[in-house]
Amino acid sequence: MLKYFLKRLIGIIPILFFVSIFIFLFVHMIPGDPARLVAGQDASLADVQAVQRELGLDKPLYTQYAEFVKNIVQGDFGLSLKTKRPVFDEIAARFMPTFWLTFWSMIWAVLFGLVVGVFSATKRNKWQDYLGMFGAVSGISLPSFWLGLMLIQLFAVNLGWLPTGGMDSWKSYILPSITLGAGVAAVIARFSRSSLMEVMKEDYIRTGRAKGLKENKVVWGHALKNSMIPVVTMAGLQFGFLLGGSIVIETVFSWPGLGRLLIDSVSFRDYPVIQAEMLLFALEFILINLFVDLLYGVLNPQIRYE
Amino acid sequence: MAEKILEIKNLQTHFTSDSGVVKAVDGVTITVNKGETVGVVGESGCGKSVTSLSVMRLLKDTPGKIVGGTIEFEGKNLEAISEKEMRLIRGNEIAMIFQEPMTSLNPVYKIGRQIAEAVQLHLKYDKRQAREHAINMLKLVGIPRAEEIVDEFPYQLSGGMRQRVMIAMAMACKPKLLIADEPTTALDVTIQAQILDLMRKLSKEGDTAIMLITHDLGVVAEMCDRVVVMYAGKVVEEADVFTIFENPKHPYTEGLLYSVPKLGQKVDRLDSIPGNVPTPSNMPEGCKFAPRCPKVMDICRQQDPDLLLIDKEHTCRCWLYQNSEVLEV
Ligand SMILES: Nc1ncnc2c1ncn2[C@@H]1O[C@H](COP(=O)(O)OP(=O)(O)OP(=O)(O)O)[C@@H](O)[C@H]1O
Ligand SMILES: [Mg+2]
């Protein structure tokens, strides 16, 4: 099994290589000239060309790509066009806020979603189920900027319990992680409900009951683990998306994360930053995928890694 | 007079759906005495499984409901006790083995844990004792390498081995009654014989009564003391095993005996009686077997006969024996 995962880890390299080509081409297709932005709106054509030369933008695309890859391999992601600071530092500073916000959002959302899903599944077509699924539909359909603003209005402005934004203490995490996790909790609730309902029809559930186990034990002990594979898959995907940083939520809560860095860099055509961010997203997805595969093996002993 | 352990009287279990009520079990009376093996036979869909699930009160999660009759276990009315009391009986005093050995074990837990679970619950063993007991049970049901198998997962075992594990699990708490719902139907012939031998041996040793549900009259002949024949949710005949084979009274039982397959031939269903089992939506008036009965009379199509005592410990639900003493209405 260890061998399998080493192989998978090594397999990341060619994937990242292909991804880098797409990212590079994509970024260079964004309309707008970064040299013009760097030089300033009223710079002369000569100035703009000087900047282009300085940034290597005058060279053919494949040369630019080759240099891009060469630098990355050496751990050099270049300088931000906007701040002139190393891209690596820019991203590192923004990564942790997004990571922790995502992490706490995922924790509560997965646990809460799971509990709601299980209750809905076991109280099928009773009021608990309707309430849970009403909550889930709301969680999916409420726009997060609206939910975020409502929470700020209530808990920060009216009640004054929590800060309106920023990242100063643990209190700052509460509102943004509720906002960010609402959609995830809803998705997890729906997935775990439908998956668990399928599992509850299985013969081994009847065996569990015939042994004299309490219904709770049958559900949480025997059914839940069997119903987890689709849920884990979904949670992994959501985690990957959220790690990219939510532009809306980071803007609403003035959160210094990757989402805001991304819109800043896109609007400035700060392509070294954009490229590095996209590469990071790709890497995150690949790693999460690997982790999810590992969990499959834990959940289902029949899955073998070869 | 033998001591009764299970007494099902006039049980009625109905399924309600949008398209109407299905009377899956509609007047079933079965008595199982201490240590005895009673066979319950009948064609597919006649309500055998629903009867056993009714006894175990495992109809939750289905649209099925017990609407009439009583089920007494050791004199205790199982319909009247609380869910908590029922849990103390399930897996402990009444154990059950199912038709589907491939899917009746939880795929994500080790064999040993699944056996130990009931043992810890009912016999109050600690983890280590329960594991020890699980290994002993696996040995008892003839599983080789029991010490290793406890730590294996169900997918690593064949169907026959899994059914042995199910038996080990069912017998682990020394139940007084084992309900075996077609325990060998899904297995091939040689394995079938081994499993039956094992059940017979264990029931002798532990003085466990068995309610053995089956399609297979060969199995009945080999295993049972008494036989209950069911048709379309009703008991149509009951007698000791010799009487059923030597002197069957109900035309349906006679039909079943004609259709007994040759030795060793495997059948999943008894369908060699001409005609089909009536569907719930298309239940005939009068006797449910009348449309297929070779001895049908006018009255059979008008009124359902009662289950009558026609001889010593021999009951039959048929107009041919209408002059007999009424057993039950
Ligand atoms: N979950 C259910 N929902 C609706 N109807 C059901 C359900 N389970 C059983 N029934 C009805 O009960 C009838 C009897 O079913 P049962 O499973 O007891 O038959 P059986 O005698 O065990 O047949 P087999 O030999 O095929 O196992 C079926 O014909 C079906 O109409
Ligand atoms: Mg059945």
What does this structure look like?
The complex is a heterodimer of chains A (306) and B (329). By secondary structure, chain A is mainly alpha-helical. Helix content of chain A is 76%, strand content 0%. The longest helix of chain A is centred in the middle third of the chain and has 36 residues, at 87-122. Chain A is flat and about 85 Å long. The model of chain A has no long low-confidence stretch (mean pLDDT 87). Chain B has helices at 48-56, 83-89, 111-123, 127-140, 146-149, 159-171, 189-206, 217-223, 241-246, 251-258; strands spanning 4-17, 20-33, 37-41, 64-73, 76-77, 94-97, 177-181, 209-214, 226-231, 234-240, 308-311, 314-316, 325-326. With 329 residues, chain B is an alpha/beta fold. Chain B contains ten helices and 13 strands. Chain B folds into two domains: 4-93 and 175-328, 3-Layer(aba) Sandwich (Rossmann fold); 102-174, no CATH class. In chain B, the strands form two sheets. Chain B has a nine-stranded mixed β-sheet with strand order 6-7-8-3-9-10-12-11-13, with helices on both faces. In chain B, strands 2-1-4-5 form a four-stranded antiparallel β-sheet, covered by helices on one side. The model of chain B has no long low-confidence stretch (mean pLDDT 87). Chain B starts with a strand and ends with a strand. The longest helix of chain B has 18 residues, at 189-206. Helices cover 30% and strands 25% of the residues of chain B. The interface between A and B is medium-sized, with 21 and 29 residues. The complex binds adenosine-5'-triphosphate and magnesium ion (MG).
